[in-house]
């Protein structure tokens, strides 16, 4: 319960700071970085807590370890393979001009769904996969 409650309302914080036009100040950048790191760490801990506490169906510590290892492999694979691919797609969408934005949206939606589906197969919530996919989207471009 503590882990679930430690997750911040990061989008709300970012929206409030954007409306106050404070997003570019160094202290706010530090605060948002700390909040993002806190959310990532809490999400990982929450996934681990859910995997460990899953007692239905005879799951035990071996299953929990498997979920943890698969989750780490998922994050590593997405950062190594999907992040550069998304950068390439963003570059192509920029170069394509007007017609590239539809391709960008389609690829992003498919990526979010695939990430969520993969984490659901692993045994953690699909929102974790969508969050990890969001980390692969480049800041510049499109």
From TrEMBL:
Keyword Ion transport (UniProt): yes
Entry annotated with the keyword Zinc: no
UniProt keyword annotations, A-Z: Ion transport, Membrane, Potassium, Potassium transport, Transmembrane, Transmembrane helix, Transport
Residues annotated as domain Cation/H+ exchanger transmembrane: 3-138
UniProt subcellular location: Membrane; Plastid, Chloroplast envelope
Membrane topology label: Multi-pass membrane protein
Broad class of where this protein is predominantly found: membrane
Listed transmembrane segments: 30-52, 64-83, 103-136
GO BP field: potassium ion transport; proton transmembrane transport; regulation of pH
GO cellular component, one term: chloroplast envelope
Example GO molecular function: antiporter activity
Function: May function as sodium-coupled metabolite transporter across the chloroplast envelope.
Similarity-based family: Belongs to the monovalent cation:proton antiporter 2 (CPA2) transporter (TC 2.A.37) family. CHX (TC 2.A.37.4) subfamily.
Designated name of the protein: Cation/H(+) antiporter 20
Upper classification of the organism: Eukaryota, Viridiplantae, Streptophyta, Embryophyta, Tracheophyta
């Amino acid at each position: 319960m503590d882990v679930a409650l430690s997750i911040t309302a990061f989008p709300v914080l970012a929206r409030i700071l954007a409306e106050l036009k404070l997003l570019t100040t160094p202290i706010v950048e530090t605060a948002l970085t700390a909040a993002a790191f806190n959310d990532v760490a809490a999400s990982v801990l929450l996934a681990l807590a859910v995997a460990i506490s899953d007692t239905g169906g005879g799951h035990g510590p071996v299953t929990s370890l498997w979920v943890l290892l698969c989750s780490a492999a998922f994050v590593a694979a997405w950062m190594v393979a999907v992040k550069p691919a998304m950068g390439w797609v963003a570059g192509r969408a920029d170069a394509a001009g007007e017609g590239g934005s539809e391709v960008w949206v389609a690829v992003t939606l498919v990526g979010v769904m695939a990430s969520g589906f993969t984490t659901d197969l692993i045994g953690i919530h699909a929102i974790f996969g969508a969050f990890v996919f969001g980390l692969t989207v480049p800041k510049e471009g499109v």
